[in-house]
Amino acid sequence: MPNTATTAPTADTKNHTPATMHQVLALNTEDAAPVIGVSAATLRRWRLEGIGPAYLRPSKNLVLYRVTDLEEWLDTRTRVVGGAA
Questions:
Q1: In this predicted structure, what is the pLDDT of residue 17?
Q2: Residue 7 lies in a domain
Q3: Which range marks the domain in which residue 48 is found?
Q4: pLDDT 10s digits, 40-79
Q5: Rounded distance, CA 61 to CA 71, Å?
Q6: Cβ–Cβ under 8 Å, residues 77 and 60
């Protein structure tokens, strides 16, 4: 059985459905960015500025984003248009 917790996925995240995204535990910057609708450069900049979704740095040259952290971050930015104030 492969250990997906220790390796970053190499698959194209645009083809993942919400059901299959939960099978992938963490994404690298290039794969995480389109999940939240930004470029990899924006995600890197946000990381340097201390904003954006939570991330893991298991080694000096590896940054990973948990799928659950990306979902939670998006949930905190959900706004209801025309809702009661």
A1: 58
A2: no
A3: 17-76
A4: 999 999 999 999 999 999 999 999 999 999 999 999 998 8
A5: 24
A6: no
- Asked whether residue 33 is assigned to any structural domain, the reply reads yes
- This prediction has a pTM of 0.68
Flag whether 64 is in a domain.
Answer: yes
Can you give the CATH number for the domain in which 41 is found? 1.10.10
**Distance (Å, whole) CA 62 – CA 64:** 7
Give the residue among 31, 70, 77 at the shortest CA–CA distance from 53: 70
The amino acid at residue 62 is L
Is 5 contained in some domain?
A: no
Output the CA torsion sign for 66, 71, 72, 74. Answer: positive
With 60 as the cut, is the pLDDT of residue 22 above it?
Answer: no
Cα atoms in the Cβ-side hemisphere of radius 13 Å centred on 80: 4
Answer whether 35's CB lies under 8 Å from 27's CB: yes
Question: Count of domains in the chain?
Answer: 1
Residues 24, 78: Cα–Cα separation, whole Å: 23
